[in-house]
Each structure stands twice: as C-alpha cells, then as structure tokens.
Amino acid sequence: MANRGKGFGPPLNNISETVGNTPMVKISDRICPKGRTIYAKCEFFNPLSSVKDRLALSIIEAAENDGSLKPGQTVVEATSGNTGIAVAMMCAQRGYPCVITMAEPFSIERRKLMRMLGAKVIVTPKAGKGTGMVEKAKELAEKHGWFLCHQFETDANWKIHYETTGPEICNDLKGMNFDYWVIGYGTGGTFHGAGKYIKEHSPSTKIILAEPGAANLIGSGIKTARNDDGTPATSHPAFKPHPIQGWTPDFIPLVLEKGLDHCIQDEIIEIPDGAAVQTSLALAKNEGILTGISGGASMWAAVETAKNAPEGSVIVVMLPDTGERYLSTPLFSGIVEEMNEEELEIARSTPSWVLER
C-alpha cells in the first residue's frame, strides 16, 4: 500500500474520535462466486471492535447536547454485549458511571470486557430473553433516576448511520458499481440509517436484509406489541433461540420497524442453522478475516446474493464485529487449546523443547 508508513494524522483528543471510517476489503474467489465482487465493510476496525461504537457515540453525544444526560449521571442500557461494551467505553471516556443489563446466554467475554471498562453488569435470567433485560434496564432507570440509552427506540441510533456509515460506503465506491448491500439486524439502526442514505444516493442498489431462519420475526408478518415509549410489551411469538448473538432479539425493535416502514429493503433472506458459524470459520481460514457469528451470517447472505446476481455485480456486506467476542461460543467449540497430533508431529521433527502430552 502506498500509504504505509505515512501515519494516521495529527494525534486525536480522545478515543471517541476514532469511531467510524472503517475500511472495505475485497473478498477473494475462494469465497466470492466468480464473476462477482464482494466487499466487506469491516466494522471491527472501530476502537472497541464493533459497529455499535457508532451507536454509543451518537446516543451519548445526542443526550449531552439536548441536556437529557447530566454530568455525573449513571448511564444504563440493555444489551447482548457489543452495545454495552461501546457504551462502557464512552462512559469511561466521558466520566459517567455505567450499568449494563445483559441476558444470561450471551458470551462471558462480553461481561468481562464491560467490567474491565468500569461498567457494572447485571445478568438477567435466560427465561426473560431480550425483553427481560430491556425491562430490567427500564426499571433501574426509573428507580434510580438514571439515563436510559433506549438503543432499540432512539432516533440517535439510525441517524449516526445516515450521517456516517451510508456516506462512507457510497464515497468509497464513487465511480464504481454498487448493486447490492447485504445486512442483518440487531437494533436495525445500521439497516435503517445507512439503508436510507444508500437508497437516496444510489437508488438502483438493492438492499438485502437477513435474519435467522429459526427466528424469522420479519418474515412472520407479525408486529411487536409495544408500550407507550416504544419498548416491547411482550416477546414476539415467532422468536426461537438462535446462535447469532447480537442479531434478532425476541422482538422487532422500533428503530428497525421504522426502517421497514420506509420499505427500503428489496429482499429478506433467512439464514439456515449452521451457516453463520461455517462462514465465519471460512472467512478466517481463507481470507484472514476474524469476524463473529453475525459477520458469518451476513457473509453467507452476501454469497447467496452473489450466486443469483448478474455477472459483474458488486455486493457490499457488513461485518459487525470481531471473532474475539465469541471465544466461549459455538464459533470456537471445534478449536482446541492443546496441540493435536499433526502439531505434535511437527514439534517432534526436531529434537529440542518438545512438550509431550
């Protein structure tokens, strides 16, 4: 690369200034169908390694600007992990106490990362699913007078993607084809905000929205029942547990629903069981790209889109986070800690320092 050694630029004032401007990386034909091009938007280049860094920055700055977040006030949010890590980062940088509610099934390493960043992590029972952790955060905010982020409802969520993620993609592809944009959803903020920008500035681009086949909430056609503040009133009847952490809680977030109401999606793809993990592993072994289960799911949808796309098509896919968030999940279940027989054979091929089992 011509810019190697050039430097990033002048020193930054704080870590929040590193959020955004993530790169797109071309996927080789070891994964991408021949005659098509897939670019991965690598959101793990954000400072805390996920797309949710954008959301946390936007929510905190919007609340500071409108006065709803006061100096020294505790910030509370419900999260599957990445938003909590990002909010904890912002709170550490700005000096706010932070409390996170998180449902029991999500990965242990996420809890540890949030606690390392100074947050208190309140784990809610598995039976409550996503709605349980949301209800707990709301209760805590009301009881203690804390600032609730409302990531699933706030317009600050999708607006940051309209202002940054969408423009970044379109600017980086200026003068090139941009035929498909493929994305899954957690809160729906990236889909809503970046999708709105893409449709306005590249109207011929088709937007492909993916969700787990085991939890096809959108595909069911059933809307989520809501409280007056937009939070879910009950768990969605079409929800079933699925392995794609960070995607598809047991309700349709209000931010996502508003995006769907704009009809910016052209197609909805369901991810079959096992496909997300298999594709994440394939990206690591074939591309050197370490992304999580959600990134594998998105890439699977992008590859399927490419298979059915006309020759010469360009597909952009979002990779939301890093694979290091999933060490205790099924993504790493087949990866052992000890040397296998092949590795032992290599070790024994020279005489010194052989660690026998």
Question: What would you say this structure looks like, in words?
Answer:
- It is built from 11 helices and 10 strands.
- The chain has 357 residues and is an alpha/beta fold.
- A 6-stranded mixed beta sheet has the order 1-2-10-7-8-9, sandwiched between helices. Strands 5-4-3-6 form a 4-stranded parallel beta sheet, sandwiched between helices.
- Helix 1 packs across helix 5 (155-172) and helix 2 (82-94) runs parallel beside helix 3 (108-116).
Q: Supply the helix-strand structural class.
A: alpha/beta
The percent range for helix content is 25-40%
Distance between the termini: 44 Å
Shape, please? Answer: globular
What sequence of helices (H) and strands (E) makes up the elements? EEHEHEHEHEHEHEHHEHHEH
Which oligomeric state applies? single chain
Unreliable residue stretches: none
Radius of gyration: 21 Å
**Strand tally:** 10
Largest sheet: 6 strands, mixed
Record the strand order, biggest sheet.
1-2-10-7-8-9
Q: Averaged pLDDT, please? A: 96
Measured by DSSP, the beta-strand proportion falls in 5-15%
Number of helices: 11
